[in-house]
Design brief:
- The mean pLDDT is about 95.
- It contains 7 helices and 5 strands; from the N terminus they run βαβααβαβααβα.
- A 5-stranded parallel beta sheet has the order 2-3-1-4-5.
- It has one domain (about 1-165): Rossmann fold, CATH 3.40.50.
- By secondary structure, it is α/β, with parallel strands linked by helices.
- Bound molecules: shikimate-3-phosphate.
- Shikimate-3-phosphate binds next to loops.
Length: about 170
Amino acid sequence: MKIILIGYMASGKSLIGNDLAHVLNVKFIDLDHYIENKEGKTIQKIFSEKGEIFFRKIENKYLNDILNSESSLVLSLGGGTPCFSNNLEIIKGCFKSKSIYLNVSVHELSKRLIVEKENRPLVKYVQTEEDMLEFVGKHLFERLPYYNQVDIIINGNNSKEEIIEEIL
Ligand code: S3P
């Protein structure tokens, strides 16, 4: 079984994915970390040197590679992954898999992102909490039509333990 975790930036995909994989005793892959390892550069550097279009191309390639080579894993995607290329199609068509959207409120995401924005090129230059709230509100609204196509939607505002319990 492949579990694919989807959600906005700072929704807890990596943290929960890592712990969930541990509980299930399966491999954990974080797509952003996988890309960073393969490319030998941070996401931030890939964006600044080669741009977002290049990033979306390799994100699509590595997503394909991972889903074609692993039979059992927990995979955490980047916040934008389901919204680009044919990624959502790949995710929905993936054999023996469940996609899960961690649904966290705009308020909570903004609070987290204002302190975790440095390695996130899309929000790096947002200065105030108020601006972050406005940006995330609009951006998440654009992405919801993609996120909402998953198999299971989980309330990501709950504690890590509650979220894992609910997924299990
Ligand atoms: C992005 C989210 C990031 C990373 C890149 C783009 C996005 O991943 O893939 O900066 O488009 O939302 P996280 O969701 O892990 O921050």
